[in-house]
Specification:
The protein is α/β, with parallel strands linked by helices. 26% of the residues lie in helices and 25% in strands.
């Protein structure tokens, strides 16, 4: 089969690799029908995730069709259409029993495209299949469903839930890429009083308004002053970091009110300064986290009911064998206007897909 293989920072290739097979009785092998690229994949290619070693197949998000299962798999069978979660769960360790699947110590957690071969391939072996793939309802389109493998549960759990967004809150989202947009969309479930999006790309600020932001501001145009003006000098109740660079995190800590919450979602490859000389007296709560995907079944139901803006997130589509081109488009989002690129699905020419009105 063909797959995207990481060779070294800055060097990946779509190449021939051996087909995966069932290695454990709890495995499933899935034919990849649609896959996407995550900001975390870009961090890997930059060399920010040293655990990813040369020869690893990248990717941790996919929709596909089960082609083979191990003897212990009971929840799916060959022919089933499934969502492959970015998180695998052994279901037995302490953290899995607590619903903290991202911290699994039994061989799961974030393993696909990290410590095990991932989904940016024609086929993928998924460990712990009964807990790590989700059968897709007929009402959910496969291209939209791939967004539920990572970005929606990540934004909802690590951003909105960790940040304890509540009715009437002022929420600032720094970074209006796919993660930030999903945070804006899912924060609306809790009726915040005002949501403010911060970014430097005009196309992403426009998208933020489409996804529900009440105000947008270019990062170069004093967003901290805007937040101060809109909150009578108090600051945001919740600041969500959705970029993964020190400047974004530090900006969040400056914009949050006393007693407020900073929810860091971004994957950081460089140290960020924690200004305790300013924060120690403010009773600020700072959370970090890897997604657990405990919310995926609920989000699937919401997408089936038309309550999540799935299609509006997809701006570009490619065939699987255009993986390297898709990476270029996604990495240059400021120039290309890319939000989420999806590869696979029905045969088509690679196109930019106009975003639908919300």
């Amino acid at each position: 089969m063909k797959a995207l293989v990481f060779h070294a920072p800055g060097r990946v290739a779509w190449q021939d690799v051996p087909d995966p097979s069932v290695k454990d009785a709890a495995d499933a092998v899935v034919k990849v029908d649609a896959v996407t690229i995550c900001g975390t994949d870009l961090h890997i290619v930059k060399g920010d995730v040293p655990e990813v070693t040369p020869g690893r197949i990248l990717g941790h998000e996919a929709v596909g069709t089960v082609v083979e299962t191990g003897g212990e798999v009971r929840g799916v069978r060959p022919g089933d259409r499934v969502l492959v979660s970015c998180i695998s769960s052994c279901g037995r360790c302490r953290f899995c029993r607590e619903g903290r699947y991202g911290q699994c110590r039994g061989g799961g957690g974030w393993v696909l495209g990290h410590t095990l071969d991932g989904t940016q391939a024609e086929y993928v072996r998924v460990p712990f299949a009964d807990l790590s793939v989700h059968p897709l309802p007929a009402a959910v389109d496969g291209l939209e469903a791939v967004l539920l493998a990572d970005i929606f549960p990540t934004s909802y759990e690590v951003g909105v839930l960790n940040g304890k967004v509540g009715p009437g809150d002022t929420v600032v989202v720094v970074g209006a890429g796919p993660i930030g947009l999903a945070a804006i969309a899912t924060a609306r479930l809790y009726s915040p009083g005002r949501t403010i999006a911060v970014d430097r790309a005009p196309s992403r600020l426009t998208a933020a308004r489409d996804f529900g932001a009440d105000a947008t501001v270019d990062v170069r145009e004093e967003p901290e002053r805007l937040v101060e003006d809109l909150t009578d000098g108090l600051g945001a109740d919740v600041a969500i970091e959705a970029v993964g660079v020190p400047e974004a995190f530090e900006m969040c800590t400056r914009m949050v009110r006393p007693g407020g919450r900073v929810a860091n979602i971004g994957v950081h490859g460089r140290p960020a300064t924690l200004h305790l000389e300013d924060l120690w007296i403010k009773d600020v709560t700072i959370t970090t986290g890897l997604v657990d995907t405990h919310s995926t079944p609920m989000l699937l139901r919401m997408m089936a009911a038309g309550r999540l803006p799935g299609a509006a997130m997809i701006t570009h589509r490619f065939e699987l064998d255009q993986m390297e081109e898709a990476y270029e488009v996604f990495a240059q989002a400021g120039r290309t206007g890319a939000l989420k690129v999806v590869l696979g699905g029905p045969r088509h020419d690679a196109v930019a897909v106009p975003r639908q009105e919300q």
